[in-house]
Amino acid sequence: MSDLRSAVIGIGATGAVVAAALLRADPQTMIVVRSPARRLELEQNGIRITGQLTFEVPVKNVLDSVARMATNPPDVIFICTKTFHLHSVLDSLKPLVRPQTKIVSAHNGLGTEDLIAETFGPETALRMSLNFGAALKGAAESDVTFFNRPNFLGALLPDKRALGERLAAQLSSGGLDTDFVEDIKLHVWKKMVMKCTMASICAVTDKTIKEALEFPPTREIADACFREVIAVAKAKGYDLGPDYLTQIMGYLEKVGLHKDSMCVDIANKTQTEIDFLGGKVVEYGKQTGVPTPCYATMANLVRTIEHDYLR
């Protein structure tokens, strides 16, 4: 993999984990961080990952902007920012993207890979479905609270299999178990059925995933939302099967007392990712004619809370 130059944009809780794995496989991996204080911390102390994964890696190439990559453009760019930054990140990449450049969306949300494809073409876009949860503990430290191995990585076009397998192998060799899959959108839907449902419920109630599923009133909301999002997925061409709700509960039991990142966003009074989570399910529901009243209610509650502190 040394012949492919990689870069990571967005060193938050999950981005730090992805970056650490790439750095373990290739110490020349570039990291883009805007904050001067965080850049200094990364340069001096590297990245530290604790919890379910334990990495400590030095960082050699810390850049203060995407534009700084122009002198040595990467071949593969992993975007790990919040989803609401994706539009601006893609705009900033336009002067750098070449025909051979590949961009990997490592977001939690629906449709991020489609936005990359719309901007640069489907041959450029790849997508990861992350199966771990993490919390930022410091400027350069992330704690992995759970990891239901493996992660999944795939391309939008079938002729990118060889590249996808190489990238999955690179991440795995760095300690972040990742499998290449032919239909990455299927795996995104499987993950987002859970993420899109529980994010809004946990954010509005300030409960952990376990607490929300064990408390009858919030469990009733979750069950209704699960039915809606599974119907939307089916209408979009992804029938997850009659027993998928049972599979969901088995997965979420392993997550346990993890608080969704949207809880952290609201606690910190920062912008949430509701538009690419519950909001995107509502959008897809309107496109396909599938009613999503519970999803619309939860998404609008999050937007209302967010609006009150952001204004």
Descriptive account of the structure:
With 311 residues, the protein is α/β, with parallel strands linked by helices. It is 48% helix and 17% strand. It has helices at residues 13-25, 36-45, 86-93, 112-120, 161-173, 184-205, 209-214, 216-235, 244-255, 261-267, 278-288, 293-310; strands at residues 6-9, 30-32, 47-51, 55-57, 61-63, 76-79, 102-105, 125-129, 132-138, 141-147, 151-155, 178-180. Strand 6, helix 3 (86-93) and strand 7 form a beta-alpha-beta unit. The mean pLDDT is 94.
Summarize the structure.
By secondary structure, the protein is α/β, with parallel strands linked by helices. 48% of the residues lie in helices and 17% in strands.
CATH superfamily of the largest domain: NAD(P)-binding Rossmann-like Domain
Reading side by side through the largest sheet, how are the strands ordered?
5-2-1-6-7-8-11-12
Number of H- or I-type helical stretches: 12
Succession of helices and strands: EHEHEEEEHEHEEEEHEHHHHHHH
Question: How does the major sheet shape up?
Answer: 8 strands, mixed
Please state the second-level CATH architecture of the largest domain: 3-Layer(aba) Sandwich
Alpha-carbon distance between the termini? Answer: 46 Å
Bulk shape: globular
How many discrete structural domains? 2
Residues in helices, as a percent range: 40-55%
CATH fold topology of the largest domain: Rossmann fold
